[in-house]
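Sample entry (391 residues):
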Amino acid sequence: MIASVLPTYSRAPLSFVKGSGAWLVEADGRRFLDLGAGIAVNALGHAHPALTAALTEQAGALWHTSNLYEIPQQQTLADKLVAHTFADTVFFTNSGTESCELAVKMARKYFYDKGQPERVEIITFSGSFHGRSSAGIAAAGSEKMTKGFGPLLPGFVHLEFGDHEALTAAITDKTCAVLVEPVQGEGGIRPLPDVCLKGLRDLCDEHGILMILDEVQCGVGRTGKLFAHEWSGITPDIMMVAKGIGGGFPLGAVLATENAASGMTAGTHGSTYGGNPLGCAVGNAVMDIVADPEFLAEVNRKAGLLRQKLEGLVASHPDVFESVRGSGLMLGLKCKGAPIDVVNAGYEAEVITVPAADNVVRLLPPLTITDEEISEAVTRLDRAASSLSAS
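Predicted structure, serialized as tokens:
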């Protein structure tokens, strides 16, 4: 008999009932250090007072009206995002998946309105993850994502991650955009080197095509810049955002230049919930904190501390770990064996991590994690690794 909750998740036998900062409390009272942050969602940790206050105040005033009307909180958040990024305009969604859907539509509509309707192909890369909608799985293209869900949405060209020659050869008169994550999350914490991101920008400019960045997981301060592409000094034409922007409240966005968004006129796209007063009240509180240069400087400092300690962890357990990789507080431990073994051992040591592809365990702690909590987290990871070495 099927469960009342559709059984599409392989859940850990844990039920968390309370959270505070980097800590989660299980129903039986155990306290876990959270290095997953809801898969990079709880950027400011659990029950952050500024987010709690913003949500409570807005909940007592107005929850939802729809996008048939002006939404002041949405306008304020859009203005903040435009002020702090390359973008000229913002559309609000509820998730990264919805952001992907619009990014694909926007790129194709751009060329349709330019009189080039044949330019519909979007180049993507192996190891990518762009959500689980029809467009998202077609963009990723992996068998794991697409098997059994055909016919797939056409118009995506899949290339091997890091194959520069194939990328140049793949651009044709049907290409409208290149879609890439500056740091792959689900793919195993694989950063795209700055020089490659710069080269990709130059290639798009040379061929007159759009550059779409998926910063759903690596954005909103995660790498120590407000958005990861800033490290390379380039800007995209379109960018997908979600996860951290809502600090735990479902919120996403598509940021774009005026040029790239020129085809998206009244009636071409919409959302019932996207950008509602509740979500944008929280998003505004997140931006007020994360966009502060001093806050980002602290993220970088703590990222250096965590990475240093993780390098020591890897050196102490060469039978369990191979290396550390990633950027900022988006780090991965490359494992010798199955990453789920490390994740499960972590549960026993009361520390939360997240598995990924390429035998990697993701470490995505709240950006507010303290130095003391970093030390305690690595102590618990050491305990988990020791248990694996002994088994």
